[in-house]
TrEMBL record:
Domain Rhodanese: 15-103
Gene3D superfamilies, alphabetized: Rhodanese-like domain (3.40.250.10)
InterPro entries registered for this protein in UniProt: GlpE_sulfurtransferase, Rhodanese-like_dom, Rhodanese-like_dom_sf
Protein name: Rhodanese-like domain-containing protein
Pfam families xref list: Rhodanese
Listed SMART domains: RHOD (SM00450)
UniProt superkingdom: Bacteria
Length: 106
């Protein structure tokens, strides 16, 4: 797991052909918008969260974010334990994100 600043995260993501963006916020929080092409898996779903992570390709590079950076850091640690080698936490979360956001389709 690696904590990246907003600039590092955005730059690394834009140059990564093997990237997957992962949003670990709640359903209510994503109503405010998500980073384009993000996969949403709510970390508060407990075992269901773990099960959904297990279905992901461990060979990809995961760029993980939440509202402020705390839950995404926790998610990255869980991913490390599950055998994901490349999980990057967005420091400051979406609160400090200056990039594009899109609305989730219901």
């Amino acid at each position: 797991m690696e904590d990246l600043t907003q600039d590092e995260w955005a730059e690394q993501l834009s140059n990564d052909d093997n990237a997957v963006v992962l949003d670990v916020r709640t359903d209510e929080e994503i109503a405010d918008g998500i980073i384009p092409n993000a996969i949403h898996i709510d970390i508060y779903k407990g075992q269901e969260f773990i099960n959904e992570l297990e279905d992901l390709d461990k060979d990809k590079n995961y760029y993980v974010y939440c509202r402020s950076g705390n839950r995404s850091g926790q998610a990255c640690r869980i991913m490390d334990e599950l055998g994901f080698e490349h999980a990057f936490n967005l420091e400051g979360g979406i609160l400090e994100w200056e990039g594009e956001l899109v609305q989730m389709e219901s």
